Amino acid sequence: MPFSPDHLSELNLLALFDSSSTLEGIKVHQHTADPAVVAAAERLHQKGLISQKDGGYLTPLGAEVAEHVQKTLAVLTSSAGNTVS
């Protein structure tokens, strides 16, 4: 099953967090942010991955997921790596 546009918005938002620090959060400004980002933040909050519906901090589960997201992104953007045939 491929990622939906909603999944991609959530993954992109999680990638913005610093998963190595519980002291750094983000704020999604409801009136100025892209509506897809606002909706992604609300979904991540409902799923228990972030502390507030407009961002806040990663929950313990959110930190774990964000770390996986960032590792996946690093592998996918790596110029040195194996190609799939």
What can you see in these coordinates?
It is a single chain. This protein is mostly helical and 85 residues long. The protein has 3 helices and 3 strands. The chain has helices at residues 5-16, 35-46, 60-77; strands at residues 26-27, 50-52, 55-58. It has a 3-stranded antiparallel sheet with strand order 1-3-2. Strand 2 (50-52) and strand 3 form a beta hairpin. Helix 1 crosses helix 2 (35-46). The longest helix has 18 residues, at 60-77. It starts with a helix and ends in an 8-residue tail after the last helix.
Overall shape: it is: globular
Q: How many DSSP-defined strands? A: 3
SS summary, helix count: 3
- Give the SSE order as H and E letters: HEHEEH
Order of strands in the sheet with most strands: 1-3-2
Main beta-sheet strand count, sense and barrel state = 3 strands, antiparallel
Can you tag this structure with a few keywords?
85 residues; mainly alpha; three-stranded antiparallel sheet; 3 helices; 3 strands
Concise account of the structure shown:
The chain is built from 3 helices and 3 strands; from the N terminus they run αβαββα. The chain has 85 residues and is mainly alpha-helical.
